[in-house]
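step: validate -> pass
step: tokenize input -> pass
step: predict -> running
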Amino acid sequence: EVQLVESGGGLVQPGGSLALSCAASGFTFTEYYINWVRQTPGKGLEWVSTITSGGSITYYAEAVKGRFTTSRDNAKNIAYLQMNSLKPEDTGLYYCTRGILDWGQGTQVTVSS
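step: predict -> pass
step: emit ->
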């Protein structure tokens, strides 16, 4: 059974940082890209970033480019999303996904003073 479990969300002030993790199991982690997607009050469902299976190539939405960094540890089957310079509009439920069919339960990020 494919499982993706996000963690690391929380409440942070504008300008702050959070580091999200996505622990994967039930499939060969090294064979799959991992995506981060968020659901925000303002824009609904929004793709955030993608990392290739080997971790050498990453892609980012314009809204987060330069502030967010995705990485992965294939030895531990974990993907990460480092979020810096957070803004109130980054508030939302953050999911990691394998393709379009397999999603975690999400972790809430709230950026507020």
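step: describe -> The mean pLDDT is 97.
step: cleanup -> pass
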